[in-house]
Amino acid sequence: MSKSFTRLAALALILGAGLIAAGCGGDDGDSTSAEAQTPSEVVAAFYAATADGDNEELCSYFSEETAKQAAEEENADSCEEAAESGLSDSDTTDLAKTVEVGDEKIDGDTATVEVSSSEQEGSGSINLVKEDGEWKIDFTN
To answer: Looking at the predicted structure, is the pLDDT value of residue 128 above 80?
Structure first.
């Protein structure tokens, strides 16, 4: 099995594009649906799910096209199945714990969230798209 999903799911982490866990720890239970979440909250929740190794939760933050691409690249039946191999690497889950989420910019149905990591130099950005009223991470563009 290739490492394509690992690169896809942890793209922002590994390439210096991702990570500020500022929003990861502050869940008060009031905002559980992606519809109620801001782009920054979605990115923080994505990294929290990655750090926890929660395949189902992680995939729930992907755009439909990103989830489909992840499954196809891993020759898997689903994003969750593809994530299973990608998250088996403890370096990925450990690195996700160091993510810090920065500024967000919303432009209609697209958004960009700046991220960085205390474990890697540099920073990057995560692209999101709005699907059915919910912000979703989009690694396809």
So the answer is: yes
